[in-house]
Design a protein that fits this description.
about 70 residues, mainly alpha, about 70% helix, globular
Length: about 70
């Protein structure tokens, strides 16, 4: 059986980081990826995570965060 690690659970509950990701997605749409990247890097996200957050789906699908708002 799969058990989530303590770290993964903490990350999901980190509302401040979730808000930062949402803000960066807005920055990406309105001001460009460079500002969004710098914003997330300033919040301590690793480059691999930033790339995943700011990348669009190859088929042009709307990212999940945009689809829910």
């Amino acid at each position: 059986m799969f058990q989530a690690s303590e770290t993964n659970v903490e990350r999901r509950r980190d509302t401040a980081m979730s808000a930062a990701v949402d803000e960066a997605i807005r920055f990406d749409r309105e001001c460009g990826a460079a500002l969004a990247w710098a914003y997330l890097a300033g919040h301590g996200l690793p480059p691999e995570t930033i790339l995943r957050v700011l990348s669009q789906a190859p088929d042009g699908a709307v990212p999940r965060r945009q689809a829910t708002h």
